Amino acid sequence: MARLIDRRMGVFLAGLFILTVALPMASSAAAGQLVPAYLVSLVGKYLCYALLAVALDLVWGFCGILSLGHGAFFALGGYAMGMYLMRQIGPRGVYGDPVLPDFMVFLNWQELPWFWLGFDRFWFAALMVMAAPGLLAFVFGWFAFRSRVSGVYLSIITQAMTYALMLAFFRNEMGFGGNNGLTDFKDILGLDLTAASTRTGLFVASAVALAGGLMIARWITASRLGRVLVAIRDAEERTRFLGYRVEHYKLFVFTVSAAMAGVAGALYVPQVGIINPGEFSPANSIEIVIWVALGGRGTLIGAALGAFLVTLAKTVLTGWLPELWLFALGGLFIMVTLWLPGGVLGAIETGLTRLRAFASMRTKEIET
Amino acid sequence: MSGSLLYLSGVTKSFDGFAAINGLSLVIMPGELRAVIGPNGAGKTTMMDIITGKTHPDRGQVFWKEKVDLSRIDEVAAARLGIGRKFQKPTVIDSLTVAENLELALKGQRGLTARLFGRSSRTMHADIMQIADRIGLAASRNDLAGTLSHGQKQWLEIGMLLAQDPDLMLVDEPAAGMTDEETMRTAELLRSIAGHRAVIVVEHDMDFVRALGCKVTVLHQGRVLAEGPLDFVSANPEVIEVYLGR
Ligand SMILES: Nc1ncnc2c1ncn2[C@@H]1O[C@H](COP(=O)(O)OP(=O)(O)O)[C@@H](O)[C@H]1O
Ligand SMILES: [Mg+2]
């Protein structure tokens, strides 16, 4: 079996660790706020995107399932967390109802819908963060993979799935806050969400989740099951004729990936302070694919790196030249497909290998 | 037929009204080596699809070891029963190494949890080495399958079939794209495999079929046109007419 932490993973985790320790310290009052405090939540958000990208890479990079609906799993995890945060508000809402969130009072609802029950408890919400997207992926995959829907057709129906969910969540009657979504959160686990310490805690939790997600994905892909996934990606028919129930393997990895995306969404919501149906928009799901392709498909680390770089570029560019962002993203995507088939990670690694070869050549020259 | 490994009787399969297989009957005994020849479109690949559960016949019987009805099961179930198949176009897992390809094919452990938690054992390594050696790829066992030559890929795929340890191997046009020397070595390999397990080989290359030195079935328009030793069938005027004569 391949080693769980290879060199690539080791370097990445070390970098992530340094970031996790250094950023909150640099932004603290004790350090004289070397960097602005908002950076903690911003980078925390990027870490959630990185985890989402790892989840997509697990199915797309290793099993060839090009999901264009992973944004939906992310959003569902986010909504599950949002529901918990809503119920944490308690009587502090604008209308002061002890149980009902503001939007329900506004809609003249008399009692909490059944699917909101239990969300006042953190453990239940945490479970739902993974169970809701996991269950959707399982049911969806059950039908899709058993009927051998694959390739472009599968991509299209995943896109349709997230679109349908977006329309559903826009409706007030659904009971998820409609258009406005869920917001005005006050605290999490009794801790004030605006406090620097809480923000740091969420940031660290995101980093830990990313590291954990990477390790789980790596464990799966480096196992003997991972070989079956790659076989399905490269030659699905062959794998079936070897006696593997391809649909079971796809279902497994799709469900795990969806749950992972849900966790990413759940950590994202308290850091940005809102979740609304826009998160289900088809364009979001496509953007995740671009992160993975740019970073380097099938490498896990590359996916995380890609998410980080692209969303960073997005923050900078949209603040500066908002009209240009989509063109820049498109251009970047074309450039990478044309010139960097291994993505950014592939480019970095070839660059390093060349540099090393060059350096050893130079030392030999000097020695002789 | 008593003691048969595979028994096809009156099998028919139509695609949009066109009968690709039309009343096909065939008996394969355990350990037998059989060559199936026939012009393009004769139904050879479709016949393999039916035996491996990829396609279900419209009519007729397909029996495995005289009791299992193959017309009702799928590819995965057929593979698990002990039917291995090599595709017409060589298909190996390009981004895995030769050894990993063989490990994937190795008999046993097809379930999710067994694959997730299980580790390869010493005997598995020994089996993989032995097969790699047999298909002449021992030296390249750690190379990615994608880097192999066309002929080596064909062998690797045959090796994967061996690793499955099936009772019947279906081999679709193994000599396609091979040099003469590779073709002869492949014939030798298949001959050495038969006896222990049954092998059905579909092939166009007459020298190759001759080198196999086994019973030949000539397929034409989805039916058996002639059956017997190569010299016998090639003397058949009908066979000459549809196939060999040109
Ligand atoms: N899935 C299919 N749909 C329609 N026609 C098919 C299909 N599979 C095979 N055929 C037709 O059946 C006939 C036999 O094909 P095939 O078994 O591939 O022949 P061979 O392998 O002997 O060259 C051909 O005319 C082919 O076009
Ligand atoms: Mg054919």
Bound molecules: adenosine-5'-diphosphate, magnesium ion
> What's the CATH architecture of chain B?
3-Layer(aba) Sandwich
Please identify the structural class of chain B as seen in this structure: alpha/beta
Helix fraction of chain B by DSSP (H/I, runs of at least 4): 25-40%
Quickly count the helices of chain A. 14
* Beta strand count of chain A: 4
Shape of chain A: globular
Name the shape of chain B in a single word.
globular
Q: Strand arrangement, largest sheet of chain B?
A: 6-7-8-3-9-10
Class by alpha and beta content of chain A? mainly alpha
Largest interface: A-B, 25 and 29 residues
CATH fold assignment of chain B: Rossmann fold
Task: Return residue spans of chain B where pLDDT drops below 50 for at least 5 consecutive residues.
Answer: none
How would a crystallographer describe the biggest sheet of chain A?
2 strands, antiparallel
* Rg over alpha carbons of chain B: 18 Å
Structural write-up:
The complex is a heterodimer of chains A (368) and B (246). Chain A has 368 residues and is mostly helical. In chain A, 71% of the residues lie in helices and 2% in strands. Chain A has helices at 7-27, 38-63, 70-89, 102-106, 122-146, 151-170, 196-222, 224-234, 236-241, 246-272, 282-295, 301-320, 325-339, 343-367, and strands spanning 182-183, 187-188, 191-192, 274-275. In chain A, the strands form 2 sheets. Chain A has a two-stranded antiparallel ribbon with strand order 1-4. In chain A, helix 3 (70-89) runs antiparallel to helix 5 and helix 11 crosses helix 12. The longest helix of chain A has 27 residues, at 196-222. Chain A starts with 6 loop residues before the first helix and ends with a helix. Chain B has a 6-stranded mixed sheet with strand order 6-7-8-3-9-10, sandwiched between helices. A 4-stranded antiparallel sheet of chain B has the order 2-1-4-5, with helices on one face. Chain B is α/β, with parallel strands linked by helices and 246 residues long. Chain B contains 10 helices and 10 strands. The structure holds adenosine-5'-diphosphate and magnesium ion. Adenosine-5'-diphosphate (ADP) binds at residues 15, 20, 38, 40-46 of chain B.
